[in-house]
C-alpha cells in the first residue's frame, strides 16, 4: 500500500512539474494582461519561440545552462525552482490525501497560491483574473468536497474580507483590495475558522520577516511588504494541519 501510494505521489509529482511550467507562463503574462494561451512560449529577450525539447521542466534549464538557445540571454533560476516546488507539492499532497478529490482540489489551490505569491512579490498586485473567478470556484469546490457547509463557506468568504476592509478604512490604505479578494477566495474553500487561522499564521510570519528586515537590513517600519505571500503560506498551513492547530489552540483555554 505504501509503495503504491509512493509511486502515485511520484507520478503526480512529475505531472506537477509540467503544471509548474505553465505557472511560469501565468506569472509572467497575467500582470502584463497578456493571453496565457497564445502565443506559445517564447524568450522574453529576443522573442524566439521555445522549442519543445527546451521546454522540459527543470532539466531544460540545466542543459541550456540557464541561457536562451538563440540569444544567450540569461534565464532566471526561478523558472526551474517554481516547477520543482509545484512538482514537490503535488507529490506531497497525494502522499497526504491520497488519489482523492481532496488532492485534486488542493493541488489546484496550491498552484493558484504559488502564482499569487510570485506575482505579488514582483508587482505588489494580486490579479483580479485570479481572485474574482476564484471565489465562486472555491465555493463550488467546498460544496463538492463536503467538508464544510455552504453557510460556513459563505462566512469564510465574507468575515475575513469585511475584517480586511475595516483595516483598509481605519489605516487609510494600509492593505490592498487584492488581499481582500484573496482572503475571500481562501475562506470560501476552507471556511471562516481556518480563514481566521490563515490570517493569524500570515500575520505572525509577516511580523517575523518585518522584524528581520529591520534588524538585519536596516529597513524601516513603513517598508512595504506584500501580504499575499503570507496569506498563501497561512492557507497552506491551514489546509495541511489547520484542524489540529485549532484544537490545540482552543484546548489551551482549558488549562
Structure described in brief:
The chain has helices spanning 2-29, 59-63, 78-97, 101-123, 128-145, 150-171, 177-216, 228-252. The chain has two domains: 1-99, no CATH class; 126-255, no CATH class.
Structure description:
The chain is mainly α and 255 residues long. The chain folds into 2 domains: 99 residues, no CATH class; 130 residues, no CATH class. The protein is built from 8 helices and no strands. Helix 4 crosses helix 8, helix 5 crosses helix 7 and helix 6 crosses helix 7. The mean pLDDT is 91.
Characterize the biggest β-sheet: none
Terminal CA distance reads: 40 Å
What general form does the structure show?
A: globular
Percentage beta strand: under 5%
What is the succession of H and E elements?
HHHHHHHH
- The amount of helix comes to over 70%
How many individual domains? 2
User: Residue ranges: pLDDT <50 for 5 or more in a row?
Assistant: none
- Rg is 20 Å
Architecture blueprint of SSEs:
Elements: H1 2-29, H2 59-63, H3 78-97, H4 101-123, H5 128-145, H6 150-171, H7 177-216, H8 228-252
Helix pairs in contact: 1-3, 1-4, 3-4, 4-8, 5-6, 5-7, 6-7, 7-8
Key terms:
about 260 residues, mainly alpha, 8 helices, globular
Amino acid at each position: 500500500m505504501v509503495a503504491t501510494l509512493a509511486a502515485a505521489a511520484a507520478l503526480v509529482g512529475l505531472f506537477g512539474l509540467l503544471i509548474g511550467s505553465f505557472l511560469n507562463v501565468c506569472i509572467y503574462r497575467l500582470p502584463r494582461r497578456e493571453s496565457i494561451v497564445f502565443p506559445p512560449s517564447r524568450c522574453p529577450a529576443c522573442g524566439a519561440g521555445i522549442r519543445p525539447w527546451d521546454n522540459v521542466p527543470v532539466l531544460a534549464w540545466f542543459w541550456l545552462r540557464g541561457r536562451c538557445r538563440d540569444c544567450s540571454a540569461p534565464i532566471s533560476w526561478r523558472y526551474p525552482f517554481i516547477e520543482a516546488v509545484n512538482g514537490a507539492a503535488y507529490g506531497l499532497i497525494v502522499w497526504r490525501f491520497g488519489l482523492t478529490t481532496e488532492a485534486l482540489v488542493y493541488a489546484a489551490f496550491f498552484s493558484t497560491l504559488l502564482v499569487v505569491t510570485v506575482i505579488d512579490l514582483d508587482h505588489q498586485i494580486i490579479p483580479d483574473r485570479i481572485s474574482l473567478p476564484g471565489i465562486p470556484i472555491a465555493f463550488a469546490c467546498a460544496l463538492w468536497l463536503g467538508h464544510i457547509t455552504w453557510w460556513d463557506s459563505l462566512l469564510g468568504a465574507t468575515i475575513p474580507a469585511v475584517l480586511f476592509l475595516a483595516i483598509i478604512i481605519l489605516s487609510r490604505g494600509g492593505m490592498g483590495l487584492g488581499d481582500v479578494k484573496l482572503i475571500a477566495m481562501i475562506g470560501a474553500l476552507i471556511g471562516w475558522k481556518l480563514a481566521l487561522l490563515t490570517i493569524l499564521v500570515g500575520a505572525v510570519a509577516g511580523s517575523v520577516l518585518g522584524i528581520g528586515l529591520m534588524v538585519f537590513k536596516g529597513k524601516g517600519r513603513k517598508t512595504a511588504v506584500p501580504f499575499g505571500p503570507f496569506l498563501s503560506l497561512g492557507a497552506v498551513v491551514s489546509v495541511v494541519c489547520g484542524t489540529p492547530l485549532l484544537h490545540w489552540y482552543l484546548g489551551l483555554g482549558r488549562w
